[in-house]
């Protein structure tokens, strides 16, 4: 099931996305409005609205976003970094989240902002110290993410809070796909295009550490809450974004997340 969060006539709701459409298009898709929230038992209302009549919002509002750095060997190498002995975790605040079609605001304190296409894991239940064999039980589904990074700031500051945590630096969407199991999530194609030109192309099978290891590692330290998001790393091919660019992240079996870069007002 594809679960979207949306706004219509000033009201916010969740809905199940039905139908098929060409990549990047919403033509022919409809939303069956959900009674309740997707993190508990819910029903479909049977009330349907065309997807192109609503505004899609970030599919979740996470309490926290936990990113994993250098989880693809070729990406680590392209930035001159060694593969770490343990996963490198960092936070992006909830204020960094923006939705499909919403702008990425180019920060005033950076002159080198990069795209990073990533598979995002959406947590479905409160959990801590998750054993590896139970990881599937705590995942609601998966969505597309762009871990937008002020690369020059990342290089000159000893920690990544400003470089990866500025407002609108975490586009998520267009929806959460719940019908992908861990085995399939471990081998999906993901790509990034800028103004229609392919910049990144990789597979999640190239991750150094799989999703199970990441959830175990993170949940050893902290409680994960429903709606929290884990970013699993980006493949090689990262590069600059400029004001006016349109950047799209497409993941096999999930969909396409598109955002335009604007100057921060």
UniProtKB/TrEMBL annotation:
Residues 1-59 form the Rv2993c-like N-terminal domain. Residues 64-261 form the Fumarylacetoacetase-like C-terminal domain. GO terms for molecular function: acetylpyruvate hydrolase activity; isomerase activity; metal ion binding. GO terms for biological process: carboxylic acid metabolic process. InterPro entries: Fumarylacetoacetase-like_C, Fumarylacetoacetase_C_sf, Rv2993c-like_N. The keyword Metal-binding applies. Keywords: Metal-binding. PANTHER family: ACYLPYRUVASE, ACYLPYRUVASE FAHD1, MITOCHONDRIAL. This is 2-hydroxyhepta-2,4-diene-1,7-dioate isomerase. It comes from Streptomyces aurantiacus JA 4570.
């Amino acid at each position: 099931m594809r679960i979207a969060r949306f706004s219509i006539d000033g009201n916010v709701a969740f809905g199940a996305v039905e139908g098929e459409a060409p990549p990047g298009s919403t033509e022919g898709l409809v939303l069956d409005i959900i009674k309740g929230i997707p993190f508990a038992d819910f029903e479909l209302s049977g009330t349907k609205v065309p997807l192109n009549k609503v505004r899609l919002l970030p599919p979740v509002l996470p309490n926290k976003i936990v990113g994993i750095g250098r989880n693809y060997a070729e990406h680590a190498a392209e930035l001159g970094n060694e593969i770490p002995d343990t996963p490198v975790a960092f936070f992006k605040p909830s204020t960094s989240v923006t939705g499909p079609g919403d702008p990425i605001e180019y920060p005033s304190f950076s002159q080198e902002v990069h795209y990073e296409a990533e598979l995002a894991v959406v947590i479905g239940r409160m959990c801590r110290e998750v054993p590896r064999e139970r990881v599937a039980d705590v995942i609601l589904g998966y969505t597309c993410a762009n871990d937008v990074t002020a690369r020059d700031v990342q290089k000159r500051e000893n920690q990544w809070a400003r470089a990866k945590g500025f407002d609108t630096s975490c586009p998520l969407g267009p929806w959460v796909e719940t019908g992908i199991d861990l085995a399939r999530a471990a081998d999906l194609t993901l790509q990034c295009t800028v103004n229609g030109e392919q910049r990144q192309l990789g597979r999640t099978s190239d991750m150094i550490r799989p999703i199970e290891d990441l959830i175990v590692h993170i949940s050893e330290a902290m409680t994960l809450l429903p709606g929290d998001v884990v970013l699993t790393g980006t493949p090689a091919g990262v590069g600059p974004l400029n004001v006016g660019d349109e950047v799209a992240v497409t993941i096999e079996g999930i969909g396409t997340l598109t955002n335009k870069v604007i100057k921060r007002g």
